[in-house]
Write a structure and sequence with these properties.
By secondary structure, the protein is α/β, with parallel strands linked by helices. The protein has helices spanning about 15-20, 35-45, 55-60, 65-85, 110-130, 150-170, 195-205, 220-225, 230-240, 265-275, 300-325, 330-335, 355-360, 365-370, 375-385, and strands spanning about 10-15, 50-55, 90, 135-140, 145, 180, 190, 215, 245, 290. Helices cover about 45% and strands about 10% of the residues. The strands form two sheets. The protein has an eight-stranded parallel beta sheet. The longest helix is centred in the last third of the chain and has 27 residues, at about 300-325.
Length: about 400
């Protein structure tokens, strides 16, 4: 086995909708046959994946009878048992059916909002049956084109009511789940509500049970907004709210591409993996590494499995590069934290009258401080050389 071959301990997961994507887009129909979920699980297990995630209708077709659902779920659970795969996360499709054309939890029609809650409760039941402990909410069509159709504050309150209600449902049923909210700036609507991870973090602070709600940032969604994904993830980690993560690739300024992880912006992907793995010394992320990406429309089924393997291998390659970078003595010297026995105590652990007085009395040679070079050009070049594999082995 090669060092970069994926193994279960890496905790790599894929959605049934990711590798199962048949290559359909707004300009053309499917180019690949639809794959059976059980086949997807078996093939991913062979490739070294840890688990699969799913929307309710990725597994159980919309409108299936209770007996049909029971048979489908029974067979799927057997496949999970046979392969050792798990379902860490589940979610609900609240965007495909025409009833959701004006959103789900934020729609103006109360019948739509009621159906969205009904469908989500049933999907949560399914997720719990399969062992999922994280439940993701992506707004899908929670947004607008004609902004005059509702006060955005009304949409915000409706979303809060829905999440509060569903938190109560999970608690009442003792499912032990946590919720992870996924932001996106636009598409398929012209504008989506709560468009970035920062918006979501504030929204969570207003919830009745905010302790059980975190975020599920996605590379493509933050890059679509022109933001640093690593910075958004770092903010979520600093708030202890990174409950799940969606990894893929994205070109800035484009539609939501869901490209193979690391196929675009290798520097950004490197910095993200470095953050998640904690190679710089800070605490890392312990949850599953989920790839919410699709194979190119040019591919047949074998191309899909090459895509899935590529996502996992690239992550492991970047992890090795990050470990080498942060073990490089020259890097360590350049990023070593500056300390000052007099100043450091004044700059940490909040305000006191005494600290304020001492800070105001300080004599700082601003010209001397301003003239000192910081070596960031060299630091960035070292990162590039590690990333390109010409330094650090």
């Amino acid at each position: 086995m090669h060092a970069f071959d994926p193994v279960r301990e890496d905790k790599f997961t894929f959605g049934l909708w990711t590798v199962g994507n048949p290559g359909r887009d707004p300009f053309g129909p499917s180019v690949r046959p639809t794959m059976d979920p059980n086949h997807i699980v078996r093939r991913l297990a062979e490739l070294g994946a840890y688990g699969v995630n799913l929307h309710d209708n990725d597994l159980v077709p919309f409108g299936a009878s209770a007996s049909e659902q029971s048979a489908i779920v029974k067979a799927f659970k057997q496949t999970l048992a046979d392969t050792g795969m798990v379902v860490p996360m589940a979610t609900t499709n609240l965007f495909s059916h025409p009833i959701f054309k004006d959103g789900a939890f934020t729609a103006n029609d109360p019948k739509v909002r009621a159906f969205a809650l009904q469908k989500t409760m049933r999907a949560i039941d399914l997720g719990a049956e399969l062992g999922a402990k994280i439940y993701v909410f992506w707004g899908g069509r929670e947004g607008v084109e004609a902004d005059a159709c509702r006060d955005p504050r009304t949409a915000w309150h409706r979303m809060r009511d829905a999440i509060d209600f569903l938190c109560g449902y999970v608690r009442d049923n003792n499912y032990g789940m946590k919720f992870a909210l996924e932001a996106k700036p636009n598409e398929p609507r012209g504008d989506l509500y709560l468009p970035t991870t920062g918006h979501m973090l504030h929204f969570i602070s207003t919830l009745e049970h905010g302790d059980m709600v975190g975020v599920n940032p996605e590379v493509a969604h933050e890059v679509m907004a022109g933001l640093s994904f690593a910075h958004n993830v770092a903010q979520a980690m600093a708030c202890d709210k990174l409950f799940h993560i969606d990894l893929n690739g994205q070109k800035i300024g484009r539609y939501d591409q869901d490209l193979r992880f690391g196929s675009e912006d290798q520097k950004g992907a490197f910095l993200l993996v470095r953050l998640l793995e904690g190679t710089a010394g800070g605490p890392g992320y312990e949850g599953p590494r989920h790839f919410d990406a699709h194979a190119y429309r040019t591919e047949d089924e074998e191309g899909v499995w090459a895509f899935a393997t590529g996502c996992m291998r690239t992550y492991k390659i970047l992890k090795a590069r990050a470990q080498a970078f942060d073990a490089d003595p020259e890097v360590t010297a350049l990023i070593a934290e500056q300390t000052d026995r007099e100043l450091t105590p004044l700059l940490t652990r909040g305000y006191t009258i005494q600290k304020a007085a001492k800070l105001k009395e300080l004599e700082i040679d601003v010209d001397a401080v301003a003239s000192r070079g910081l070596g960031y050009e060299r630091l960035d070049q070292l990162m590039v050389e590690h990333l390109l594999g010409v330094r650090g082995g």
